[in-house]
Amino acid sequence: MSDAPARRVPWILSVWLIVAGVIGVWAAFELTLDRIASVEHPHAALSCDFSLLVQCTANLDSWQGSVFGFPNPIIGLVAWPATIVVGAGLLARARFARWYWALFNLGVLGAFVFIIFLSTQSIWAQNLHTLCPWCMLTWSVTIPTFWAVTFRNLREGVFGRARALTAIGRFGSTWIVVIVILSYLAIAVEAQLSLDVLRYVF
Known about the structure:
Blueprint: H1 11-40, H2 57-61, H3 73-91, H4 98-124, H5 133-155, H6 163-174, H7 176-195, H8 197-201
Helix pairs in contact: 1-3, 1-5, 4-5, 4-7, 5-6, 5-7
């Protein structure tokens, strides 16, 4: 029997990646069903259409809803399972190579940039001006996933052992809750400035 110490499990990151992946797949699946429903019944209201402000139809029918020539939710159906696999692997004490973490980080960076683009389009684009419920759910798990993975990789030296990088990783890991909340607030402020959301709430 080996005397090597058991590998420490990053429980919070592991569980979060699994939870975020499940939520992301669920949101993508529901959006895919809604997209199919909108094709089959073009004039019917979708289950995610609550008002002119909160709806999915405008987003799904727009060019922004198929940026790469196919419905955006398909990307989520393919990509989110990767976070579940990584999270489950960490729980099983798997050891991933630096290149694997770097590629995974590149993937979540791409997701982060994509949801920033889509959220900005949804809020500001003249053909949209909506808040899509399933889209917002996707935004809400993509943002902390990006920050968590990025700060983890900086802290662990995936992008080099420079003291500044590891210091940013440690600082970000400590303040990640605040950083995530500020990221949410940035989108909320955008929505308020463009859509006057509070007027609909109150």
